[in-house]
Amino acid sequence: MANLTTNAKSRLRGVVFDMDGTLTVPVIDFAAMYRSVLGEDEYKRIKAESPTGIDILHHIESWSADKQQKAYETIADFEKQGIDKLQIMPGAAELCGFLDSKKIKRGLITRNVKKAIDIFHQRFEVIFSPALGREFRPYKPNPDPLLHICSTWDIPPNEVMMVGDSLKDDIACGKGAGAFTCLLDETGRYGPDDFSVTGLHPDFKVDSLSKIHNLLETNFDLSP
Known about the structure:
The chain is an alpha/beta fold. The chain has helices at about 30-40, 40-50, 55-60, 65-85, 90-100, 115-125, 145-155, 165-175, 190-200, 210-220, and strands at about 10, 15, 105-110, 130, 160-165, 180-185, 205, 220.
């Protein structure tokens, strides 16, 4: 990924995180969720057409109200199972402590519901503000949630970084807003072909949240 040390260091005053799979250990079986909502045949068809991943929330928006309600109930069941097993991602607490020490603001954007954010805040005992769930429309990958946070902070997007584990949601959101982007890829899921196909090239890619501390100090001016 890019290294920004060749030029004068860019200022960084805020970091916005995705929640599921970024600040929390991924536990939701998304493939099973999509199969339950779509049915096996429709799941296979859409998956074949969407190599970078299925946007289930966008897909069901065109459904009838009754069908949407059932879909949201199914999604909520899977998300509740995720909440029951919620674990903080290794390195998250230390990274938040580092950001606090530098007076760098931290926010959160998730396609999960606000209730999940509240439970995460209670268990983690660290607050992200603003913290936006899918009740804020339009949700990721639209850049509006990130632009809303930047506006609330009164910090321009080019002094903010979006960190997440989804190329199509988090990196697309960050790029669309004009922010720096950092892809968390613990398992080597993404490669150059994925970046080329989507046209989404994160500024940085790490395999652990613990790597972000050094990345920020190396590449950015972190003065308040």
